[in-house]
Amino acid sequence: MRKSIGVVDGIVLAASSTAATSSIGIGLGLMAGIVGLHLPAIMLLAFLPVLGIAGGYGRLNRIDPNAGSSYKWVGGIFSPWLGFLTGWVNVVGTVVFMAYTTTVTGSAIIQFLGQATVHSVAGLSLDPDSTLQSTLLGMAVLVAASLVAVRGLDLAARLQKYLLIFEYGVLIAFCTYGLFAGDQPFSLTWYDPFDIPSAEALAQGMMLAVFCYWGFESVFSVGEEVSDPRDASRGGFIALAVMLLLFLLAGTAFQRVLPLDELADNGAQGLSYFGMKLAEQPLAALPLIALMFSAVASLQASVIPTARGMYAMGRDGVLGSVWTRLHPKHGTPAVGTLLITAIALVLAAMALVIPTVNDLIFAAVNAIGIVVALYYALTALAAAVRFRHLLRTSPLEALRAVVGPSLGALVLLATGGYLTWTFYTSTDHFEVSADNGWFALLVPVLMIGSGLVAAAWARWHRRSPYFIRTRAPGAVDAGEPTGTG
User: Fold this and answer.
1) CA within 20 to 30 Å of 160's CA: 7, 66, 77, 480, which one?
2) DSSP H or E segment with residue 372
3) Does the keyword DNA-binding apply (predicted)?
């Protein structure tokens, strides 16, 4: 693939993948229903392990920039089975995300039409909380976004850059105004994680907050297309820092403007409701337009790294060669991009069994959060093992490459494990419902289980050479000196 992007494009891709505007617009209300008036605290607390894990990603990318990123690194450092599973759950989790973001995008468009006094089309009453209407509309947007991604990273990055400028401008303006215009009394306890109601609320809030930061690592999946591998690391870290500042600003502003019950009850319409509390039309529509732009950009920014992950797996022979077919003119994995889009469309259609957008978001985010915690932790631990010699040769560098990733991995594994246990013990029967614990666990179990089956097929049927590789490209022994410090 062609080296067509630099550090600015990397920042744009990572920021679009994390989709701060979407996370703020639909996620803060969900989190407020769990942790109460502690949105700034939970966002700051979740940032710390993610920052540690980002250090591991950046260091691994410097020695082995690879479209497969964590799939290749974990496979080379630990075992091909764990590497395959890491890549698989990453891809499947992203496809699930694309499926529900398709619905979120359609819901935002319908909300916007409602604010423009368009409440029905051809006699059909429009409802932004209708999963069916929102999904069908979002599907059309996903197809269009994928076609732009096929055209090339440079075009996609330029489009996303302008969308981000608008989104962040609107967010900063409204949230800054909300800090001063809000009538809810400010309290320093908003920033105190020890004041969160319970350990279960802390664990679930942490998982949702980590999900909000999820996507920064997408910049490493285009490592082969970045002119300088260090630009990918810079892009990821800058995007994370911007996300933290936006989440703290928005969390504080939302709590200054909205009482807890209004914040929690509005869920997927949280940003739209926030805008209407602060301004009259047409200005009140700006946050909703920003949410639409964010959802569109995140759809496109999700299909790009996912297609490249499948490209890397196809290149290694663990998946079919169809995933390695590049566009003859643009040099992108065009067939894989379209296949990923088709799978996401099918999954979005299957999600129609969940009747409301709020319930769909809650179910999907919990499922994805658990698998994200797993593959983040595996990648971070791989970095710690790979660079453990720095503990002796360069203690300061070891803080970023070994200690930070290790601590981040332990926090996420503990949080994910505790949340899994609470879901398991929360009920004694299975039901297709967003608040049923066993249903919440079914999706991550299917993701991991299907990954093991696919790995076994690749190992014994395809006889992929990936499964007999014992060292990652560029790997060195623990005691061997390295020039990358």
Assistant:
1) 66
2) helix 357-386
3) no
* Furthest-apart CA atoms within the chain: distance in Å: 72
Residues 320 and 333 sit within 8 Å (Cβ to Cβ): no
Of all residues in the chain, what percent carry a pLDDT higher than 90? 21
Q: How far apart (Å, rounded) are the C-alpha atoms in residues 440 and 420?
A: 9
Residue 376 or 359, more confident: 376
Rounded Cα gap, residues 431 and 397, in angstroms = 49
Spell out the residues 6+ positions from residue 132 whose beta carbon is closer than 8 angstroms to its own: 352
What would the two tokens of residue 33 be? 């229903």
Task: Output the six-digit token pair for 23.
Answer: 């996370």
Contact, 317 vs 140, CB < 8 A? Answer: no
Q: pLDDT by residue (tens digit) across 418-443?
A: 888 888 888 888 877 767 778 878 87
Omega within 30 of 0 (cis) for the link into 282 = yes
Confidence band, pLDDT 50/70/90 cuts, at residue 272? confident
| CATH label, 7-468, candidates 1.20.1740.10, 3.90.230.10, 1.10.275.10, 3.60.15.10 | 1.20.1740.10
Residue from 59, 60, 69 nearest 397 by CA: 59
CA 414 to chain centre: 20
Q: Give residue 468's pLDDT.
A: 76
Is the pLDDT reported for residue 210 higher than 90? no
Extended strands (E) in 221-350: none
* Residue in this structure with the two tokens 């920052």, named with its chain if needed: 51
